[in-house]
Amino acid sequence: MQTLDKHFRNLTQAAFQRYGFAYAELLSRWPAIVGDALAEVSQPERINWPRGFDGRPDRGQPGGGTLIVRAQEGRGLELHYMAPNIIDRINGFYGYGAIANVKVIQGKLRKAAASRTPQSELGGSELADLEARLETIGDENLRAALQRLGTGALASTAAARKTSQS
Description:
By secondary structure, this protein is an alpha+beta fold. The protein folds into 2 domains: about 5-105, GMP Synthetase, Chain A, domain 3; about 125-165. Helix content is about 50%, strand content about 15%. It contains 8 helices and 3 strands; from the N terminus they run H-H-H-H-E-E-H-H-E-H-H. Strands 1-2-3 form a 3-stranded mixed beta sheet. The longest helix is centred in the last third of the chain and has 26 residues, at about 140-165. It is globular and about 55 Å long. It starts with a helix and ends with a helix.
């Protein structure tokens, strides 16, 4: 059985590349890359790549595109000041210098799609066990990300068990 995600990637790849999103992850993982607080007031619009660069680092081309970010009205200056941090986070996410500049435009944000994350159906003991495993991690952001990942994974496993028992 194949997942729809595989087919969705094949169908949307040309559109993403046309608008500068050779990597759809930037759109879908924007809150994880820049943080929830910044993601609430901004959305990536597109990436303008230098002439002759298609966004892939493996071709020996010069890199460093310009990310166009739409900021909520009145928040553009804040995003402009945070541009070096945004560049570092995106390049750290991809593992190479994909983004060299950030251009901020202000305007109304598109409505965010409803979260497709399954609601946690974990019992108190499962959550307590997960938190006990993560308490030794010193970095708060890493611990929070691992907790979200663990909660999602455990909830998916619980949902799969529930479905198979039906």
